[in-house]
Design a protein that fits this description.
764 residues, mainly alpha, two-stranded antiparallel sheet, 34 helices, 4 strands, extended, disordered C terminus
Length: 764
Amino acid sequence: MAEELKGGSGGTTDIYNVEAAEILANEALLLPISEAAPIYEKLLSTFPTAAKYWKQYVEAYMAVNNDEATKQIFSRCLLNCLQISLWRCYIRFIRKVNEKKGTDGLEETKKAFDFLLSYVGSDIASGPIWMEYITFLKSMPATTVQIESQRMTSVRKVYQKAIVIPTHHVEQLWKEYESFENSVSRALAKGLLSEYQSKFNSAKAVYRERKKYIDDIDWNMLAIPPTGSSKEEQQCMAWKRLIAFEKGNPQRIDATSANRRVTFTYEQCLMYLYHYPDIWYDYATWHAKTGSVDSAVKVFQRALKALPDSELLRYAYAELEESRGAIQSAKKIYESLLANSVNVTSLTHIQFIRFLRRTEGIEAAKKYFLDARKSPSCTYHVFVAYATMAFCLDKDAKMAHSVFEAGLNKFMHEPGYILEYADFLCRLNDDRNVRALFERALSILPPEESVEVWKRFTQFEQTYGDLSSMLKVEQRRKEALSRTAEDGSSALENTLYDVVSRYSFMDLWPCSSKDLDHLAQQEWLAKNMNKVDKPTLQNGSSALGSEKAPVGLATNNKVSPPSTKVVLPDTSRMVVYDPRQTKGPEFSAPSSVNSSTSTLALLGAGTGTTQGIDEILKVLSPPLVAFITQLPAVKGPSPDLDVVLSILLQSSIPVGNIGKPASSSQQVSTGPVPSTSDISGSSWSRLNQNGSANRLRRDGQLGKRKDLERQEEDDTTTVQSRPLPQDVFRLRQIRKSRGVSNPQTGSAASGGSAFSGEQSISTD
């Protein structure tokens, strides 16, 4: 049966396979309890907070009246699974067990109700349990007047607790409470009801807000380790929003009751986010902030049982114990980390050394370091950490130097260790030993692993050396690293990049950012020019290959300047693009335009002349022609976006299927179509119908606002757009200079309404 928990390729066991778990649980329902028990135990060992599996398990024992086994299961699950359905199952069992015990049984049941409500009474779905408890109290026999009075008092107290809790049944409970008080004493009821009316109103208001957060939560979700799925992230955020809501104490109740609700919310959250270390940590730190450090310790202990491999939670737990002075408890946590020799890391050794230095002193830390350096899991980081601690905390430079020297024999092949040792010697201002260290390390390290060491050596000489030593180290660096480069001779050449490296300081540079970008581009181009084919360069195409050129000072490798083989464009011959003057190859019209094959010849023959432009306009629909002719003159390929958008909003281009002509209902009646194109050119002039140029005024007088607010209504008008005043004037001048008719009326633009402030847009 456990084979159901197999998943993935190759039969790899996935104990958190939710689908397999559901299949097993459904199979267990059909089996006798003796055979189903091992299945439930297997499921609950994987999903210890799955209340639905616990409920299914315990109900199987209740069905065969095995009370002892039922009690054992409840003792294992109740406090970790604060779910209403499971707890109602518990109270049902208690009432069944005590129903024949008379007065003693009633008292035991009453205690069970109080116990239940103390844990899950603040649940939004706890209303039925409150009502069941009240019904139970009312049914208790009262042989004397005193007992009757006590019973009424008990019922009243339960009502008063229930009506201030934001549950689904809070309004029903309030109505029942009103009836109860009026049935006992109308005179007393008036005062009590007025006292609790405001509390009830507050609970009802909070319930509406609380329900919004509750509705986002999936209550059937099983607790599995995070996989990063969107559903898991949504559930995690939903729980965090609910917790934040409860922490805000929206009902403004007393601190004790508010903290109880937050605790309850965290406990419910952990039923579903059981494997999330951040939830455990937040829960523990919240307890510590509220003054309940003991509760925080218990949460951490539970967290380590849930996530025994979480090193991070152990450090957090040890930190809490150390902060409250429980040094021995904190030490045991560190020792538990070190006990598992398989999972011990250098970080564990380092943190324990620091802990011992803080709590027991220098000698204890030194003693452990001498033992830890013999461990197979000890890396150079342990030596660096202890030497730094001795130098910074103990102020013992001699000890730190000895530790670095001891580690040098073992970690000479580690560039990271060399750099840390060099930094230490620089702090001592021991430039002589720094140079000796670099020379010793570079004589052993292979070139491909010595890049960072050479870089630091160069930086050191730039700070501590003179010009001669600086240039000498840079040249040696180039010679050493040229062996790893594809073009070794090129790497040996001096470049302006070297000067930038020598004469920059922190974020200060001896040239502008533009120069830096240029140098970076040139260096990259020189580095990759051999990867580009020669014909490609001769054709003037990009010589950058498939890689992306760097931007700014992004590399420390010095390469040669661009070769003369690279063909660069002659920028002195660059001109502003003008399609009316460009003669190029023939091109086909868009598929959306119903043009014949003869159009290609017309376009090719008429390129650069007004005749070609006229032929292009003939194959376009009238609305599209009207839109093109309204486009303003621009200088270069970048038009004024506001002007284009204004014209586009005023245009009436029909929306139809691509490749099909617009229907008559989609076409807008226009005036005579101009025979020129409004394609932007290199000058501020436009072509009229005869091909001559008319220069447009850019700074004409703006019309008055009242002229802009005129509207023309049409039977098919559904959308209106108001262009900017300056744009309106400009468009009016364009149309006037070309004699273009108003698309709506057929009159001249100067006398029409198309540019008087608003233009109607015809829609289907």
